[in-house]
Amino acid sequence: MSRFWSEIVETLTPYTPGEQPRGQSLIKLNTNEHPYGPSPKVIDAIRAAADARLRLYPDPQATALRTAIGQSHGLGPDHVFVGNGSDEVLAHAFAAIFQGKGALQFADITYSFYRTYCRLYGVEPELIPLDARFEMDVPAFVGAGAGVVVANPNAPTGIALGLEQIEQVLRQNPDVVVLVDEAYVDFGAESAAALVPRYDNLLVVQTLSKSRGLAGLRVGFAIAQPQLIDGLLRIKDSFNSYPLDRLALAGAEAAWADREWFEQTRDQIIAERARMVARLAELGFETLPSQANFVFTTHPNCSAELLLAELRARGVLVRHFPQDRIAGYLRITVGTPEEGEALIAALAEILPRH
Ligand SMILES: *Cc1c(COP(=O)(O)O)cnc(C)c1O
């Protein structure tokens, strides 16, 4: 606390990101980063852009990137908004769409940044409980207030909804915006972007952080009908007209163009996920069905806190959320098969001792 703080600062509950260790060689399975990294063409493109042109401001409209993203969905650049990571896109959506309209509905167990933005923008959260299997009670999402936010696949469970269920949420909320956060959609769920032409209340948010291996570049985007996109642009141009710098634009455009690298590494991650689930089951773990690049798993005989600490002592970082209903679970990022085997070896050593 400081006497210089504005009134709102004291009321915030800032998001806690996963640990980013410095200088140690740890196996990092705690923040859902991509094990293979971006396409080599991304590095080339960033190198090629790193010259005296950095004295110039970047394109404030990010037209080339928005055009490329739109094209892959059969939409024009007027249907695409880009931001400094999808967290920033989400923040602008709260300011442009949800603020000042009553309660915003989202699941009791989901991405914790939604609550953080509720505090920041003065939006009241209305938590809809997931069922005992951590599945979404679709009919319960009828937001008469500010709107609805759905993470698909959900985090940290990894469980995905089908497109029919997303469409049901859209149909039962025709007068409010349904924001679908698709940070992990490429690992096995179906994107709602195809529904954008038919639903003016749909805002789809994606990121290059997870499936394009670019968490460090900070590029996210939204797809929606142009009226919603214009609202986001009005907030962006009242906040920071240049959220994507020249290097980020160059890298993101190259990442989007290299479909082959994207698909090949995504398939490797999906195959490793299946292998990891099977290996964990051999050790007695129960894992929720994941369509993401992480698994959410629990062991009947061993607490998650203990496993977290013992794994850390063996150089393996995973994530634990000390929250009701999920405190017994660990969220483990799907890495390379070598990283997966190091995790399994550490667990096999820890479990018999407890
Ligand atoms: C990682 C993540 C994001 C944010 O990713 P950015 O790196 O800010 O693009 C958004 N939503 C969910 C559910 C995530 O897991």
Describe the structure.
Helices cover 34% and strands 14% of the residues. The protein is α/β, with parallel strands linked by helices and 354 residues long. It has 2 domains: 9-37 and 260-353, Aspartate Aminotransferase, domain 1; 40-258, Type I PLP-dependent aspartate aminotransferase-like (Major domain) (Aspartate Aminotransferase, domain 2), CATH 3.40.640. It has a 7-stranded mixed β-sheet with strand order 2-8-7-6-5-3-4, with helices on both faces. It has a 3-stranded antiparallel β-sheet with strand order 9-10-12. Helix 5 links the parallel strand 5 (147-151) and strand 6 (177-181). The longest helix has 24 residues, at 259-282. The radius of gyration is 20 Å and the shape is globular. The chain starts with 26 loop residues before the first strand and ends with a helix. Residues 85-87, 111, 151, 155, 181, 183, 207, 209, 215, 220 line the site of pyridoxal-5'-phosphate. Pathway: Amino-acid biosynthesis; L-histidine biosynthesis; L-histidine from 5-phospho-alpha-D-ribose 1-diphosphate: step 7/9. Its cofactor is pyridoxal 5'-phosphate. The modification N6-(pyridoxal phosphate)lysine is found at residue 210.
Shape call: globular
Bound molecules: pyridoxal-5'-phosphate
| Euclidean distance between termini CA atoms | 42 Å
Strand order of the largest sheet: 2-8-7-6-5-3-4
Number of strands: 12
Helices and strands, in order, run as EHHEHEHEEHEEEHHHEEHEEH
pLDDT below 50 for ≥5 consecutive residues: which ranges? none
Count of distinct structural domains? 2
Structural class: alpha/beta
What name does CATH use for the topology of the largest domain? Aspartate Aminotransferase, domain 2
CATH superfamily of the largest domain: Type I PLP-dependent aspartate aminotransferase-like (Major domain)
Helix content: 25-40%
In the CATH hierarchy, what is the architecture of the largest domain at level 2? 3-Layer(aba) Sandwich
For the largest beta-sheet, the strand count, sense and barrel status come to: 7 strands, mixed
Q: Give the amount of beta strand, in percent.
A: 5-15%
Average pLDDT level? 96
Q: What's the tally of helices?
A: 10
CATH class of the largest domain: Alpha Beta
